């Protein structure tokens, strides 16, 4: 019998960490005293400044303009759900070492328009016009 440890190259360290965060979220959600918004705000506070500024602004916009969505974390990142299903999410650039953050939609059939529609946007900053577009898409996705 060998005690040699085999390695698996399918997931990098950041991807494995995201999966562990998701497993932790699932465990926490089963506890009656879980506070998903507090956990979301905690994750935002941990982000590097550029990501944090975007995530804070998106949280403020979504909370004010689409209050029917529930804030929570999803794979350790801010997300907003309805009826337990994630509608949209923010992914910090620092999460996977990318050049820009991402704001995306998760299986939002109300956004489909013909043969092509938005599912994610790369973000470096938010202008007033960007904010209007994202809020209108989130409202549409939320039904």
How much is the average pLDDT? 88
How many domains?
Answer: 1
- Helices and strands, in order, run as HHHEEEHEEH
CATH topology: Aspartate Aminotransferase, domain 1
Q: So, CATH architecture?
A: Alpha-Beta Complex
Instruction: Count the DSSP helices.
Output: 5
Q: Approximately how much helix is present in the residues?
A: 40-55%
Poorly predicted sequence stretches spanning 5 or more consecutive residues: none
Main β-sheet, spatial strand arrangement: 1-2-3-4-5
Structural class: alpha+beta
Would you kindly provide a written description of the structure presented here, covering whatever features stand out?
There is one protein chain. The protein is globular. Helix 2 runs antiparallel to helix 3 and helix 3 packs across helix 5. The termini are far apart. The mean pLDDT is 88. The chain has one domain: Aspartate Aminotransferase, domain 1 (Alpha-Beta Complex). A hairpin with a 2-residue loop joins strand 1 and strand 2. The protein is α+β, with helices and mostly antiparallel strands and 143 residues long. It has 5 helices and 5 strands. It has a 5-stranded antiparallel β-sheet with strand order 1-2-3-4-5. Helix content is 45%, strand content 19%.
């Amino acid at each position: 019998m060998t005690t040699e440890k085999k390695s698996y190259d399918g997931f990098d360290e950041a991807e494995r960490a995201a999966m562990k965060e998701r497993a932790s979220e699932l465990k926490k959600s089963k506890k009656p005293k879980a506070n998903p918004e507090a956990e979301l705000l905690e994750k935002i506070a941990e982000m590097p400044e550029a990501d944090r500024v975007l995530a804070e602004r998106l949280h403020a916009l979504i909370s004010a303009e689409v209050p029917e969505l529930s804030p929570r974390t999803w794979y350790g990142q801010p997300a907003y759900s309805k009826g337990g299903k994630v509608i949209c999410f923010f992914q910090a650039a620092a999460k996977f070492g990318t050049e820009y953050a991402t704001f995306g939609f998760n299986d939002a059939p109300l956004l489909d328009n013909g043969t092509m529609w938005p599912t994610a946007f790369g973000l470096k900053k938010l202008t007033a016009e960007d904010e209007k577009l994202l809020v209108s898409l989130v409202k549409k996705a939320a039904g």
